[in-house]
């Protein structure tokens, strides 16, 4: 195929033996589509991680953030959630997503504006 698909999977709750795709759903779907008529599914390298729901959300957000530009309100809600639920500061969020601190502050201000309406 030219390149290895990349996705993360983590356990679902409450059955840790069951895994779900956290990031890379489109790559997995494309791979399944390519090999749908094959007698044997292909062997594909992937990263398996045991993560909690908050980490799974953060991984999915990071994957979506770099894939294509997010709508400003979606970014605002995501940054606000990281600040609220994981107690991350502006500097930490900016560093994690490769954006400036003023950019994060602007989005978080937007999140607060959206809630008051």
Could you give a short description of this structure?
The chain is mainly alpha-helical. The chain has 5 helices and 3 strands; from the N terminus they run ββαβαααα.
Explain what this protein looks like in three dimensions.
This protein is mostly helical. Helix content is 54%, strand content 9%. It has helices at 25-34, 53-67, 72-85, 90-97, 101-116; strands at residues 8-11, 19-23, 47-48. Strand 1 and strand 2 (19-23) form a beta hairpin. The longest helix is centred in the C-terminal third of the chain and has 16 residues, at 101-116.
Show the helix and strand layout.
Layout: E1 8-11, E2 19-23, H1 25-34, E3 47-48, H2 53-67, H3 72-85, H4 90-97, H5 101-116
Parallel strand pairs: 1-3
Antiparallel strand pairs: 1-2
